[in-house]
Predict the structure.
Amino acid sequence: MTARRAQPAPADAPPAIHPTAIVHPEAKLGDGVSVGPYTVVGAQVAIGPRTILGAHCVVEGRTTIGADCELFTGAVIGSIPQDLKYQGEASLLLIGDRNKIREYVTINVGTAGGGGKTVIGSDCLLMAYAHVAHDCVVGDHVVIANSAALAGHITVEDRAVIGGLVGVHQFVRVGTLSIIGGCSRVVQDIPPYATCVGYPAAVFGLNNEGLRRAGVSPEVKRRLHRAFRTLFHSKLSMSHALAQVDRDADRCPELAHLLAFIRASKRGVARSVHTPGI
């Protein structure tokens, strides 16, 4: 028999805790929080109003979860890093509002060597079996699909989509409104607004559907398309391509962000399969 999914409680209701759940008396639960069967909540956890914890979840460590989130069966949130350098130092996991964290997702707290905190923004969807390692910073409206894994110290900007079974290397940055196709191996930064896929991931063009959904204007899309042709589908070196695109960047924040993102890269950016190396 399938367990019924918990429903949000009234905004001013006290926390509803299943009799089989174990909630430390020092944990802070907001109004309307629901804690499902056999779920464990640690002493240093703070959970915002109306958040729902499903059955068999574990929320531990110095973890803060915002309002109106939902954790599904088996999610393990706030566990210690899978990092041999971790020596038990105090570190944080900060999760924003309105996130959906599906079955068996794992998210680790940060480390002293990475700023001491892992951050998940708001309005994100983490699908079943996804993993977010220590010191990652994930923006708002991000989708991480089934069994995708983020290694430590990764930055994912707002509205990025990471496909199923994708592996992302440590310290990689994933740009805003980019999409990474399933089963890709990501070892370099993914440019904003890009569609990338492959082993290793390569740039195939603009994320046109993502730009449309975000309400990006046709004129901005045309300017980004021209920039992508120069940056990723020409015979220019990246430094020369950046200089050429710079001339078209006036009064276009999206284009300015693309150029700044590439220039700030420490690992290099993913290139087109049609573009020679620098």
Q: What stands out?
A: The longest strand covers residues 201-206. Helices lie at 208-213, 218-232, 238-246, 253-263.
